[in-house]
Amino acid sequence: MKKLLALLLAACLLAAAQACALGETAVFLSDQAITVDGAPISADPSAPVHLVMQKEAHEDVPQELLDLENRIVTITDAGSYRISGTAADVQIAVRAGEDDEVRLILDNANLTCRTAPAIAVYSAKDARVAGEYGVTIELAEGSDNTIVGSHTVGAADDDIEFDGAIGAQVSLGFEGSGRLIVDADNEGVEVASGHMTINGGVFHIAACDDPLNVSEDGFGTLTVNDGFLYSAVKPIAGGEGDGIDSNGWIVFNGGTVINLAHPTSQDGGIDSDMGSTINGGVIVGAGNMYDPIDEDSQQLFMMLEFGQETDDLVVVTDENDVPVFAYDFPHDYMYIAFSTPELTEGTYHVYLGGEIEGEAQDGLYTSITAYTPGTRMQHGAGNAQQRMQAPMGAAPEMPQGGMQPPEAMGDRGGQGGFGGGFGGFEAQMQAYADYQAALAALDLNALLAGKDLDALLAGKDLNALLTGFDVRDILTEEQITEHFAGIDLDAALSFDGFGRGMGGFGGGFGGPRGLASSADVATTDFILSRASTGFTNVRAAE
Does the reported pTM lie above 0.90? Predict the structure, then answer.
């Protein structure tokens, strides 16, 4: 024990000396002690870094941990804090002033907090501008850092709640070149109010809900400029979560980003309420919900809607069968989106499986030296109807991809892509919701019993019926009046301008978040252009 204490003392003194030379405050953590610049941490609440002992008693705390006291390392002043060491049941909490900039430098820090976030940022400077932040988490060069964290649940409406293992109530930025592993029992990294910006680092984030989340409705922007980011929802039974999620915007400007949703839930790999834009980088998103990417993205992208299992190697080649993208998917997903700087307008081929040689990182091949094609795929001739799982009557989501971040709107003001305001959109959305609710209550088998289906379908466009089903094509006027009284069907069935579909019913997904069928006749040529980036019903060529 004496030898261990001596080693810990030597380590914390070394960390303190290095930090002092750089004008930083050194915080060294262990299960035995916490030091600040080589001295035991103060319990005085007036000290810029002090210790608070705190029990968490929210409803999600397991019974056996209700008596657990976390050691809360509380930072209240501006400055740079180099954090190192390994400790359990400890939290770094930032409670700085509104003008204070705080930098947390993780330098081989390994923190576990079983009943709350391992890092919780309550307050600090926040410019409230996308891409700017007053709190920085820097991953020190050459460092390996691990955060294992939980979450909190507010006991009252005014209580601060943290959903992520790393949580912030102000804008948060990541910098540096070190590595960070995040293991979360709920969300991974969350900014509840503000923006999140990633400017560097290597991240592996596994969470039971969204691995990355910017959750301020209609405001926050999640921006990735550089680094390597692998974010995946844990494939636990009954789980859910998007690979990357923002209730505002998502903007990819660079780096390599792999985002995997829960493999069986109706979630997206890249999900945003106000629009996702790809301007650069190598981007992969996979999930089971169609989440559009902004057509104004500077970099080309491809969206594949699969009609068969995809838990295999997916390879996209150019027209000469030279691979331009390859990823070995760990789970079966319906929607796969990807973008690389090499994508140009032209003809591509898609293969499932095959033999590949080259360098890969987390399933993504960054260098391919040889490829023997597997099953050649085709697309078009409708949508992947057999794989639609969205429940009938589900409330529609806000349409994606039309609006731009506030700083990108310019003279367009706040209108974005909604045609000048929300009034008409809200009425149309309500009509759609009413229509879905009425539709969910129908027993079509009973309504169509005894009907002459040949006569009913005579002269109808069957392709249109299957990809965008309209009850007016099969029900009588009396039945329409009885079951859809007071509903503006024209508004409901044209909601968001995606054809006549109702999304998830009768095999189509034309509703508020839909892709039109990519080809009338199945083809193995995937012709990519600025105007045509989505390919439906991808399956083995016949």
Answer: no
